[in-house]
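Sample entry (363 residues):
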Amino acid sequence: MRLSGIAMGGGRGLSNPLRRMSCLLLLFFWGACGAAQLKDLSDGVNGRFEYESITPPNRHLYARQLLGGTTVATISAELLMPIGVAKDAKVPAVVLSHGSGGVESNLRDVWAKELNSAGYAVFIADSYKPRGVVETNSNQELVPYPAHVADTMNALRMLVTHPQIDAARIFNIGFSRGGSAAFDTAWPTWSDPVNTSTVKFAGHVVFYPGNCNIRYRTDDREKATAPILVLMADRELEEAQDVAVCRRWYDELIAKGNNIRYKEFKGARHAFDTLNFTYRVNPRTTSAKNCDMELYMTMKAGSGLGNNVYDFKKKRPMTTGAEFGLAVNECQALVPGSRGGGEAKAIQAQAVQDTMQFLEALR
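Predicted structure, serialized as tokens:
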């Protein structure tokens, strides 16, 4: 049972004052009001619009394609086409999955600019503000994580209908929490709940992801559907996760036959792709760096937590959801998260170059 396209309301019954308030919020955040909600992009639309996605309450219900508690969400989006595309031409495209800070300047100032100039269309979706959330740095539960994944897959669902987009060359680049999403959209467990007419992303670029230290694994039964490039901060400077654990996990996945490449940028802090290189600190950043646990997802409804749940820090298995939740709460923390400084400008330039080389090799 696919979860996309299910009629669950989605706020169409809002009173006039609430509609006006929603419109004012769109005007403030997006610079436009009354953006059309589109079922597809078959008319060749570009610019700002809205599309339908879903908000699943948790990973297990989403992965098992169960509808309990899932609601429809209307997502604000922007499609930026490269300049001078002929009407009968088809171009590659990239879906950008933002991080815990929401749609920040790196998406347009760095990636849309770079990708458009290279001939790629760029799809930017906002998973937060349409749900009434500005950022999730200090509270990742404000927007359920699978909603971020679903928004990305529904962006792919929209893009494959655009007459000027090459459906075989659509890529996903994600940052931080969005990097976790860009990693997960490469695996059938997380991509299949949204109906994309069998089209998958052609490649995935994952920037400084946050899903290494608490791993929801599916590689006991499936492989990644496309190549993955992971670009990580310096393990000594990354506060959000343990880069050494990431490398260990990716090595395991590579040994199982998955096409994954990773790189650690020495001297790089979190969010090293931004143009603002001034050293700064976010005082409340969610960190799982002191965690090291995993579970293998199971598709059997009613089977609870999953299979082979293990806490590597405490060297013990876990058998209940409550036990797992307690372990997460014990190891997660709010910490100061640093950005920029040092050789950030050179690192940012190298990260852009590595990304473009990866994409071009898959075109």
